[in-house]
Amino acid sequence: PFPLHRPASQNEAAPSLQLAQRPRRNRKAEWSRRLVRENVLTVDDLIWPIFLTEGASGREPVPSMPGVERLTVAEAVREAEKAAALRIPALALFPNTDPSLRDPTGSESLNNRNLVCRTVREIKRAVPEIGIITDVALDPYTSHGHDGVMEGERILNDETVALLARQAVLQAEAGADVIAPSDMMDGRVGAIRQALDEAGFQDVQIMAYAAKYASAFYGPFRDAIGTSATLVGDKRTYQMDPANSDEALREVALDLDEGADMIMVKPGLPYLDIVRRVKDTFAVPTFAYQVSGEYAMIQAAAANGWLDGDKAMMESLLAFKRAGADGILTYFAPRIAEKLKSQG
Ligand code: PBG
Fold first, then answer.
1. Which of 41, 78, 161, 331 has its CA 20 to 30 A from that of 24?
2. Is beta strand 178-181 parallel, antiparallel or unpaired with respect to 154-155?
């Protein structure tokens, strides 16, 4: 029989299995683990989402997202300077619109002096080298919290798309580099591309939230932009069913046909299979959004001492890279950038 254990007293060679392959050999030391490492996270992979407020107080904490604050225009400019110093490539802006400015059709979205447009202009003036991504959707502006205009209980697709195309042009006029429609209306990427081109913005990119799921993980974001309390019903007639995967590929194919330059999958960690399928199928720039609920879970567990927050953060971000993502939108962006910088 196979001699697994020999008495040490016999002074023979240490007991050993006859293995041609010992995967542990490559893991024996840090230099070797570094040498065989397949994926790396760098600051170039990060997009930092920032919440904006009209409030006068400078910074307002978001209780369900510890460490995240809503910022006034002036504070947003300061964060943009910090992001540039950390070499974070781009910011994504999300407004908490004053409740008095919200109405059923989200008309504040078409005000070229709204919070987002003003912030884009100020950041572009102060920090021209940083990329600015603006969200195209009506939910920060509607009194009912939906991403489209409503007729009774229905979200009207084509009427909404017409508004989104105008919103996109205003954002581009303010200086946005990338337009990111997160509304999930049909045909909006094509309409936005056409409107941007007609307005002379051929170079403005479109990052399409192509595969965006109707997810419970968006809860803290809705607190941050102030739609939790007002949202009527849910978004399942436009955001995707979490049960589906082939449908994500169909959505991505349509958005690419319509002119999308980059594709977003959202949420992130629970949908890494979608990231992988999209990247393998289309081989286009593919991004993942580590959404508010994913952030909140790691922060809450870390605050309770239930896991090491820093390690969980880094591991979660590396997982996106392993799944094939070219970059990640994450509320951890400044913390990660600082950590990567200190690691040299
Ligand atoms: C909707 C939008 C959502 C998020 C960003 N834009 C989701 C929603 O409210 O349905 C969620 C982002 C996050 O959770 O971090 N336009």
1. 41
2. unpaired
